[in-house]
Amino acid sequence: MLEINAASEENAVVLVKDKSLDNKLNWLRAAVLGANDGIISVAGLVMGVAGAGGDRNALLLAGIAAVVAGAISMGGGEYISVSAQKDTEISAGRRFDLITANPWAASWSSATAFTLGAALPLIAITGPWEQRELATAIAVITALSLTGWWAGWAGKFHIGKSILRNVVVSILTMGLSYLIGQLLGVTVI
Predict the structure, then answer these.
(1) N or C: which end of the chain has fewer CB within 10 A?
(2) Any idea what DSSP says for residue 92?
(3) Residue pLDDT, tens place only, 139-186
(4) How far is it, in rounded angstroms, from Cα 136 to Cα 49?
């Protein structure tokens, strides 16, 4: 009887540790995804508008619209997907005290991180400097290097790989968006 109780107690400790890790991973995933998506998607959009010859007002309007739409989309998407995860955990018979999915926490984490991340390229592209596109690229690459470092550090993963994938995706996004803006855009005089 003592062995069964000891085994049950050991399993309970493992479940608590797993739940703690799951909660950390859910929050980390939502925050990193939100920040990276805010930085990359808004940078891509404003670089495309800049490539088409958009002025500061057009860049600001497009950027603000992208921030609002993106934050709502990210927050709503996280809420919906994590709610589905929670529903699956419940339907699989997981006890309520062991459910790791938290739709509201994931939603707010992602929407907030998206907004904070998106502010950077928006500020960089609408700043008073002449080389807006260069300033935006430098700001975005720097920020995504930092989020890559943070994700690697927090997740105890290879930091260099984490940074590299962030930077490569951002360079492709900005470069292709700018090119499309130049190829398809029309400058209004």
Answers:
(1) C
(2) T
(3) 999 999 998 898 888 778 899 999 999 899 989 999 999 999 999 876
(4) 13
**Backbone φ, ψ for residue 54 (5° rounding):** -60, 140
Which runs of consecutive H residues, i.e. helices, occur in the chain?
A: 2-51, 56-91, 103-125, 132-154, 159-184
What does the block give as tokens for 92? 């699989």
Cα–Cα distance for residue pair 49/80, rounded to 1 Å? 31
Distance CA 110, CA 26 (A): 10
Burial (Cβ within 10 Å: 0-12, 13-18, ≥19) of residue 119: middle
Burial zone of 117 (CB within 10 Å; 0-12 exposed, 13-18 middle, 19+ buried): buried
CA dist 153 and 3 (Å) reads 39
What single-letter DSSP state applies at residue 93? T
What global pTM score does this model have? 0.79
- Which residue in the block uniquely carries the two structure tokens 């493992």? 14
Residue 26's alpha-carbon distances to 75, 110, 166, in angstroms, are: 13, 10, 19
